[in-house]
Specification:
This protein has helices spanning 12-23, 53-59, 63-69, 103-112, 185-188, 190-196, 230-234, 241-250, 257-264, 295-298, 306-323, 328-343, 359-374; strands at residues 5-8, 28-32, 45-47, 77-80, 86-90, 100-102, 119-121, 125-132, 135-140, 145-148, 151-153, 171-182, 200-205, 208-214, 220-226, 271-277, 290-292, 348-349, 352-353. 33% of the residues lie in helices and 25% in strands. The chain has two domains: 5-73 and 98-169 and 279-346, FAD/NAD(P)-binding domain (3-Layer(bba) Sandwich); 171-277, 2-Layer Sandwich (D-Amino Acid Oxidase, Chain A, domain 2). By secondary structure, it is α/β, with parallel strands linked by helices. Monomer.
């Protein structure tokens, strides 16, 4: 295939697509709003599943590089009560089904696998328009433009490419995270480090939850989940670390101090992460020369599949284009149909949709059900 592919967004999905296209000798350019690979931190740990994320990495020819960044022992999962009592602990099973890596390291190996000029940094999209015959013009904040013969929106929740295909916009999902970090936890926050253990801990409760995992070394990364309207969070001054931490901690009054310390003793100002989602059945009529992947296509509240699905999207789109070099529209139609089916599969537990912190949360739900039935 000689038609160049223009990708908007250098996240995990867009970079996976670029890598697969590169392996097949298909010309590709990635335009990214961030000014450089180090412009911001890339988030915490990801468990990469053997049925989607690892499949994508195999298609990208990066399994050796992936295994080199896996952090051993991080799959341990502990379910605790509000007083810190351990209800159940699941040890790492050793199967390699969902090894944990740092998101930034995963992005790095994808970037390193591409020619240096593949990603064009500092290109924030401000406008797009169809030119006909499958061609699209993309305008950037600096006034520059590019005309794409084949355009892929891999630009996340608030995609600038999505309006070319769909009128759908993300809606608040009813829950938010408050994100915190504790550094040097084994020496400075010993009780909290002990309850988290070597992997992850989840303390669930109706409408709220504390989740934390151990990153590299003795850094603890916490997500405090609350089911509250956006107005409730808007009333909290998140620029004032003490005020924000105190207000969020009030929602966990009476909980064990080693758990609430993840809020009150945080080494950063708590960061609000509201959850938005596209309709579960989000789809579009085939538009010539353009498609979407990852959160631009199927944004959902956190369920452990987002990064994995974005990479799988990228790999499958790349493979479809390589397999249909003389019929791009056939490749895009094949890809879209598989994407729609995958996007509609809500993560469920016992018939109820689960919007947990990540896939460990789904496992925790199963643990909790088992424990309840045994009582």
């Amino acid at each position: 295939m000689h038609t160049p592919v223009t990708i908007i967004g250098a996240g995990l999905g867009g970079l996976t697509l670029a890598r697969v296209l590169h392996l097949h000798g298909i010309p590709v350019a990635v335009y990214e709003a961030e000014s450089s690979p180090s412009a911001r931190t890339q988030g915490g740990m990801l468990d990469i599943h053997d049925y989607n994320g690892q499949f994508a990495l195999k298609a990208a020819g990066l399994m050796d590089e992936f295994h080199a960044i896996v952090i051993e022992g991080r799959q341990t999962l502990r379910l605790v009560e509000q007083d810190g009592t351990v209800l159940y602990e699941m040890a790492e099973d050793g199967t390699g089904g969902r090894p944990e890596v740092q998101r930034g390291e995963l992005r790095r190996i994808l970037l390193d696998s591409l020619p240096a000029d593949t990603v064009r940094w500092g290109h924030q999209v401000t406008d797009t328009r169809a030119l006909g015959e499958g061609r699209h013009e993309v305008t950037f904040a600096d006034g520059g433009t590019v005309v794409a013969s084949l355009l892929v929106g891999a630009d996340g929740a608030w995609s600038r490419i999505r309006p070319l295909l769909s009128d759908a916009t993300p809606a608040y999902a009813g829950t938010s995270f408050v994100e915190t970090y504790l550094y040097d936890a084994d020496t400075r926050h010993t009780r909290t480090a002990k309850v988290v253990g070597g992997g992850s801990v989840i303390a669930p409760s109706p409408g709220k939850e504390i989740f934390a995992h151990r990153e590299s070394g003795d850094t603890l990364h916490a997500y405090v989940a609350l089911s509250r309207p956006q107005d409730w969070f808007a009333a909290i001054d998140f620029t004032d670390a003490s005020t924000a931490a105190t207000r969020i901690a009030q929602e966990f009054d009476g909980w064990a101090p080693e758990l609430t310390a993840l809020i009150t003793h945080a080494d950063i100002t708590p960061v609000l992460r509201p959850h938005f989602a596209l309709p579960t059945e989000h789809r579009w009529d085939r538009g010539p020369g353009v498609t979407l992947l990852g959160d631009a296509a199927h944004l959902a509240a956190p369920n452990g599949e987002g990064a994995n699905l974005a990479m799988l999207d990228g790999a499958e789109l790349g493979e479809a284009l390589a397999a249909n070099p003389d019929d791009i529209e056939a490749a895009l139609t094949e890809y879209d149909q598989a994407l729609f089916a995958r996007s509609a599969e809500a993560v469920t537990f016992d018939g109820t949709e689960v919007h947990g912190i990540d896939s460990e949360n789904n496992t925790a739900q199963a643990m909790l059900k088992m424990i309840t039935e045994q009582r």
